[in-house]
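Researcher: Hi, I'm a grad student and pretty new to this. My advisor asked me to get structures for two proteins we've been looking at. I'm not sure of the right format, so I'll just paste the first sequence and hope you can take it from there.
Model: That works fine. Here's the first sequence with its structure tokens right after it:
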Amino acid sequence: MYQLIDGKKISAEIKEEVKAKVAEYKKQGVEITLAVIQVGNDPASSVYVGNKKKACEFVGIRSLSYELPEETTQEELLDLVKELNERADVNGILVQLPLPKQIDEETVLNTISPLKDVDGFHPMNVGALCIGKAGFVSCTPAGIIELLKRSDVDIAGKECVVIGRSNIVGKPMALLLLRENGTVTVTHSRTIDLKEVTSRADILVVAIGKPKMITAEYVKKGAVVIDVGIHRDANNKLCGDVDFDNVAEKCNAITPVPGGVGPMTIAMLMKNCVESVALQNI
């Protein structure tokens, strides 16, 4: 029988821990503030931004919301980011992606101060992760490490395989597993004999962006499987990159979709906001 890794429960634990830390800071006269910028009114982005605001309210973090029109120019957005970089009362800056086509995402993300980059996307924070220095870590991979640790999954010495090499999940995920002393392989669309590689994994992290692609033949018996994907299937039901019904019985532990990795991203964003205070005062 497999263990279901409950992201809702674990994310709730983390939010409670963050809430306690925020309350401690408030006693010291420190108010933590997150500035969230959304350009345009993409429906999915609006849902994410709303969830971030609710999480801020729950843990006691002040949230500043900047809702800019779709036709906002890159220069206007960069001016706002630079202004927030300079503000002593703002600890974290988050620009909701995707951005409209007239704005270059990389330029915007690189303009956010690395000390306020609570999403962990700035090259300086990615570089800090590579060499083991203090910095913000991308929220989804950081959340996956918490899922594993809090589910008593030992990473040290284990064969870990990551499917996907994106800058947001795949690459930082591999670095974090390496930091936890895992033996890490990164696979991708050009990997030869993917099934042979993934079926060696004690811990398999799937972030490939294809619904239900990973079936039992990709998975080693007794593996721990983490599914980062989120899609809608032919019946409009939420599903992941892993064919859960096909794979679950072969696993020692597995995350569901929804309710696995998803809830962890915002919980880790809140954790990064709290950690911003110490980073900004080093």
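Researcher: Oh nice, that was easy. Here's the second one.
Model: And its structure:
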Amino acid sequence: MESDIEMPCPICSATGELKMISHVDEIPYFGEHTQVTILCGSCGWRQTDFIPAEGRKPGACSILLDGEDVLSARIVRSSSCTVRIPELDLEVKPGTGSSGYVSNVEGVLNRFIEVVDMVARDLAADDLHEDLQRCMQVKSALQELKEGSSRNVTLELLDPRGHSQILHADAVNRELSESELAELPLGPDPPVLDGH
């Protein structure tokens, strides 16, 4: 379903250019979700999120990356989710432009590799060799994980809105502690729609 949103774009302030596209889909083993995408026809800005049909509690989901079979585990990450690989000291927190996505473990590792590559380019340009060496070690570890190497590394999704999940028999779900809830960012605010 597509509808116009009668408010200015939060990025370029163009009026009459925002559209909302919503799509309800059944994600196997996750249940019914609504994918909501808001996009601006003027500047191209877009934001996507996934909202489960049934209410969810704030929660965390994790999986041990202990072999090739977990690489295909499905990941649903909402715009409010923090993604961590604690053993490699990697963390991606949601920002104001954060979007949700559906991927698999390998796809999440690829996203981390892209960011490590970007940071490495900046470090090389600034001639920071020690930090660049650490970056290359992290990239090497991520590449090994993509190849199915068992390194006792954990992928964690921490979602204060409870919309993110890992689909795999070995995934572990738990509630977030009060201290985790206090520290975790919520990501972008959902748009306020006035029904026009």
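Researcher: Is there anything I should tell my advisor about the second?
Model: You could mention this: The two ends are 14 Å apart (CA to CA).
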